[in-house]
Amino acid sequence: MLYEMKGLNEECGVFGIFGQPEAAQLAYYGLHSLQHRGQEGAGIVTSDSTMLRPHRGQGLVTEVFSAEKLATLSGHHAIGHVRYSTAGGNTLENTQPLHFKSKTGDLALAHNGNLVNADSLKHLLEAEGAIFQTTSDTEVVAHLIKRSRYESLEDRIADSLARLVGAFAFLFLTEDTLFVAVDPHGLRPLSLGRTPDGGIVFTSETCAFDIVGAEYVRDVLPGELLTVTEAGIQSRQYMEPRERAMCSMEYIYFSRPDSMIDGVNVHTARKNLGKKMFEEAPVEADVVTGVPDSSISAAIGYAEASGIPYEMGLIKNRYVGRTFIQPSQEMRERGVKMKLSALRGVVNGKRVIMVDDSIVRGTTSRRIVKLLREAGATEVHVRITAPPITNPCFYGIDTSSKDELISARMTPGEICAEIGADSLEFLTVEGMVTAIDRPFEGELRGQCAACFTGNYPTPLHEQEQDGEFLKLGERT
Question: Which of 12, 247, 393, 416 is catalytic?
Answer without folding.
Answer: 12
